[in-house]
Amino acid sequence: ADLPSGPLDVVFSDLHFAYAGGRFALEHVDLRVPAGTTCALVGRTGSGKSTLASLISRAVEPERGSVLLGGVDVLDVDLQHLRSAVGVVTQRTEILAGTLAENITLFEPLAREQVERAVAELGLDDWVAGLPAGLDTVLGPGGTTLSSGEEQLVAFARLLVRDVRVVVLDEATARMDRVTETQVVRAAERLLAGRTGLLVAHRLSTTERAEQVAVLERGRVVQQGPRSRL
Ligand code: ATP
Ligand code: MG
């Protein structure tokens, strides 16, 4: 099946998941993220946040229950179509050997202008201008090394040029300097604007624009509601 067009809501319904040989990493998870809004996932390390996030793009498949996007079970969606609609930023961004522009397009033949627009939309013009050769800066082995925060900025730009409809951000836990952190938070806000977002948050600052917060504890959602109530 294809996903409906337009904004998509994300629904986890009585979701259970276990890694091979392990106990349930997620149990009885019911959660709805309305289209165009952001839900922040918080909870201690090992509580299941990344696992829950990875079910949306079908990086792993549920044991029981379902994940619905716009009412369609992700298991019924063609994987390529699913991944064009859902963008995931994991705790580790892979930087390829190539220029910054190539790392943003992932070597797809996109117009330079599209890349420039994504960079501007994320508020990253100054950051790019500060690199040795701007968008043509060579990254990867032998090239310029990015900090983990900067790698996240690249990951955001990758999703923006593809214009994904659902954004899953699993924040890196690595410490960032203040300038990079401000850039990352602001770029994430811009990426999430108008899209449906699931945000695994380690910094309180990034939960600020989330309409909803869900607290995970040992694979269960123990609290959920508007940020103001928690
Ligand atoms: P963190 O805040 O440290 O990123 P998390 O909330 O994202 O933690 P998960 O990574 O989802 O937690 O892990 C949930 C549970 O599943 C943990 O008990 C973890 O040990 C286990 N787990 C995670 N990944 C795997 C894996 N690939 N194989 C087996 N068990 C795993
Ligand atoms: Mg995690």
Query: Uncertain segments of ≥5 residues (pLDDT<50)?
Result: none
Classification by helices and strands: alpha/beta
**Which percent bin holds the helix content?**
25-40%
Rg from alpha-carbon coordinates: 18 Å
What's the β-strand tally?
12
Distance between the amino and carboxyl termini = 38 Å
Order of helices and strands: EEEHEEHEEHHHEHEHEEE
The CATH fourth-level homologous superfamily: P-loop containing nucleotide triphosphate hydrolases
Biggest beta sheet attributes? 6 strands, mixed
Query: For the residues shown, what is the average pLDDT?
Result: 93
Strand line-up across the major sheet: 6-9-10-3-11-12
Amount of beta strand: 25-35%
Please name the CATH architecture. Answer: 3-Layer(aba) Sandwich
User: Which cofactor or ligand species appear?
Assistant: adenosine-5'-triphosphate, magnesium ion
Q: What is the CATH domain class?
A: Alpha Beta
Q: Based on Cα principal axes, name the global outline.
A: globular
